[in-house]
Amino acid sequence: MTVKSDIEIARAAPKRPITEIGARLDIPEDALIPYGRDKAKITQDHIATLQDRPRGHLILVTAITPTPAGEGKTTTTVGLGDGLSHIGKRAAICIREASLGPCFGMKGGAAGGGHAQVIPMEDMNLHFTGDFHAITAAHNLLSAMIDNHIYWGNALNIDDRRIVWRRVMDMNDRALRDIVVGLGGVANGFSRQTGFDITVASEIMAILCLSRDLSDLERRLGNIIVAYTRERAPITARDLGADGAMTVLLRDALMPNLVQTLDHTPAFVHGGPFANIAHGCSSLIATETALRLADYVVTEAGFGADLGAEKFLDIKCRKGDLAPSAVVLVATVRALKMSGGVEKGDLGTPDADAVTRGCANLGRHLENLAQFGVPVAVAINHFTADTKDEVDAIRTYVAERGARAILCRHWADGGAGAADLAEHVADLCEGGARLSPLYPDDMPLAQKIETIATRIYRADGVEIGAKIRAQLAEWEQAGHGNLPICMAKTQYSFTTDPTRRGAPTGFTIPVREVRLSAGAGFVVAICGDIMTMPGLPRHPAAESIAIGADGHITGLF
User: Fold this and answer.
1) What whole-number distance in Å separates Cα of residue 437 and Cα of residue 311?
2) In this structure, are strands 91-95 and 266-269 parallel, antiparallel, or unpaired?
3) Of 55, 146, 153, 549, which one's alpha carbon is 20 to 30 angstroms from that of 168?
């Protein structure tokens, strides 16, 4: 039997009009701004009318440490949302938008897979409603205004050696990581070294995803620190007069996008900060809107629980006054075998012992999540080659640690395949979780970094040089000491070495650099060799993507 690709399944699926999807959540037609027949934005005016409604239950989906074998976190997020709908619950899903860079590079899209997908899948993985382009434009407008200000006399006395604002584009391009601008003579400005980050690493992306409304967005944009004077005084976007125009560019992008799953569950797809170099969650405004409209809202945090879930719980929940009722930790037999030492080419060979060895990684994530005080369920994302012994090894391991592991077949069966998980999660939501952040606001910044490294990564300590400690102390004196920490490191290991799988011990976390995101409201600690502009692989996915003779896209998953 030929297995259909994700794009073939999505293309064949019947779609209901977006007004009908909105009506499932009592969103009136005049509160939707359609982008075609199958996607729409929800107006700010309607969102403002929802604030007095009670919130539904928030469910966070996270995962074990990523491996090349795949875990299917987004697929499980969609499957669980459909599963809740399948058992009669009023449910909605909140996920991030896809970045073009990974889509045309190696990672692929961000719409789920199999029969647990959000549609229109092709639009979602390409330009969608233009949000990322608006963020790119707003970011680069600010970049242009910095150089323009210096060109026309530099009234703010910006030290061009201390400009910290780079440029962005939504594509993987390693050649742009470090560049020189302003070459070619006086008419082109002053020469200086700078570079590009990928759009999803932009502070403006993080700001959009943490803003409550347009006025909050403009305030945060104005707070962005772009440079310093020779006296080390900060220069903000507000000082340059850029905040108003940037807000105008982002006006429509701030409105959440509404689409649907294959099972027609409402799905909010909005924002897309990277989880290894940003906070990795969909927008606060989409989550808040969904919580006021649905009884159960399923969302996800990027990469493994050590990165995405920690940032969701310590940054997004802190900023948005959110508290999940339950957490779902996704694992696969294949990924656990890789964590247990099996090479990718041998994953098809049954090996329950390797699964048990790999469960050390699963166990560490379970222990970490327990620190936050929220009940956890384990979702075993089913693959056809999984054996009963391998699945039972996971169930036994998880049961010994006081949780329950449930086999899920949403990839093959849609919401019906996640009904057991949905029933269990709905029960967990009634247990009365009490979120406990990892650290208090008033803890010193360096100690916050150490707390994450030792309690979540299980490092012996951190390596923070004297210059970086002095920078952190300076920010504390300037009033930024109460900000949370956003750790930027490899997603493939608890360490900064992506080759160390499982649950390693006996290591330290080197902090290479710290960055103040005063607009977003957190401090970024860059650890190890993590980069803010990815490169393309030897054979990028773009080589296989084209338009077929029938006008349909080919090669897109």
Assistant:
1) 10
2) parallel
3) 153
For range 469-495, the mean pLDDT: 95
Predicted confidence (pLDDT) per residue in 142-189, tens digit: 999 999 999 999 999 999 999 999 999 999 999 999 999 999 999 999
Whole-angstrom CA distances from 213 to 54, 95, 142, 317, 494 are 19, 19, 21, 17, 35
pTM here is 0.94
∠ CA 461-462-464, rounded to 5°: 150
3-state secondary structure 240-270: CCCHHHHHHHHCCCCCCEEEEECCCCEEEEC
Query: Residue 277 is which amino acid?
Result: I
Are 542 and 504 in contact by the 8 Å Cβ rule? The answer is no
What is the residue-wise DSSP string for 445-473?
Answer: HHHHHHHHHHHTS--SEEEE-HHHHHHHH
DSSP assignment of 92-131: EEEEPPPPHHHHHSSS--SSEETTEEEESHHHHTTTTTSH
pLDDT in tens, 31-67: 999 999 999 999 999 999 999 999 999 999 999 998 8
User: For the chain, how far is it from start to end, CA to CA, in angstroms?
Assistant: 19
pLDDT tens for residues 340-391? 988 888 888 999 999 999 999 999 999 999 999 999 999 999 998 899 999 9
Residues contacting 440, CB < 8 A, separation 6+: none
DSSP 533-547: S----SS-GGGG-EE
Beta strands in 265-341 (DSSP E): 266-269, 296-300, 326-331
Query: What Cα–Cα distance (Å) separates residue 46 from each residue in 52, 92, 231, 255?
Result: 12, 17, 46, 10
Kindly list the catalytic residues.
73, 75, 96, 107, 275, 303, 383, 411
Q: Is the pLDDT of residue 483 over 60?
A: yes
337-355 per-residue burial string, b: 16 or more CB within 10 A, e: under 16: bbbbebeeeebeeebbebb
Domains of the chain, CATH where assigned: 43-129+253-429 (3.40.50.300), 131-248 (3.30.1510.10), 445-527 (3.10.410.10)
Rg of the chain over all Cα atoms, to the nearest angstrom: 23
116 within 8 A of 414, measured Cβ to Cβ:
yes
Distance in angstroms (rounded) separating the CA atoms of residues 283 and 208:
7
